[in-house]
Request: fold
Amino acid sequence: MADIIDYIDQYGNLTFEEMPFNEIDSLVLSRVSYIPFNGIVSPHCSHKITVLGAFKEFLSKHHDPYKQVLWHDDVPLMAAMAESQRFKKMELCAYRNILDPHREMQFAAITIDMGNGQLFVSFRGTDDTFLGWKEDLNMSFLPVIPSQQEGVNYFNYVCENMKGDIITGGHSKGGTIAIYAVANCVEKYAKRVKAIYCYDSPGFTEKVFKEIEEKEIMKLVYRYVPQSSIVGMLFYNDAKYEIIKSNQMGFMQHDIYSWEIDGKSFKHIKSATKSSMFFDSTIKFWLDKMTFDERRKFIDALFDIIDKTDARTIGELTDNWFENSKTILKSIKNMDYKTRSMILAALFTLAKCVKTNITVSLIKMQGF
Reply:
């Protein structure tokens, strides 16, 4: 089945005059923010480098480029872009990549001058750092997470220093940051935005979503989720979405390289799977049973356990899983009674929510 790299191979020699910007182009540019361009793309708007030039420098800087990227296919994606007439002359600038443990923030963004009078502001989603994942989960109790506010600052900076209409977006948390940035930036800058693309992006607290909705930002949003989406169903987001076909299962459908392409668009399907809807209702039901303070304590305790392993990324945790698992079990055993009871209570509540939703699903299936 065709993916976004196949799309570039097939249509990469067509200019935007020959084939207008589309939903696949937006996904490609949303992925660019995941490439580690430290020391290659300037943090400022005034210094630009082409996609071709940046990829050449990336290859010359790293002996094994595959060890630098989050996902193996990120390297062939950049190679395809660098070889295509459609993407290789685009100019990159304003690259930011921030990991701030004190603020519990993982943020990255890059701006792409498409060469047609438009800019694409690309926000990175969650990487493989536990800091990034913790910030994601913090969305369950914080009205605004630090990367969302950083997104506003970044967006204002780009708009102040660059001209042209703007398209913005991102995959995963990146799409959520894009929406929040446009909703809270300087008003005159928001008027330059023509579209916001969100790919399997989580939502907000209900209060924040309602505030964004009042600003009529959601009419600019194009939202896509795979048929068994998990991440894209987290938290509150009442915006309409398109369902696209993935060739993976479960959580692995979050991988954009599993999304099937049909010509110049995604392979769209009519409805999400029952497992996706079950997960969505179960998590929302579970969160509704917990106060914001209970959510915070549960997440803090969970990541305190992981922190004892000294692993900073998912890869580091799994590479030394035997020793890390012993450390995790020891940490749980040494917890004070109150914290351990709180974690067990939260997990017990989750189990009850799963059981309740299974019962409801069976009743519906039998037509009662």
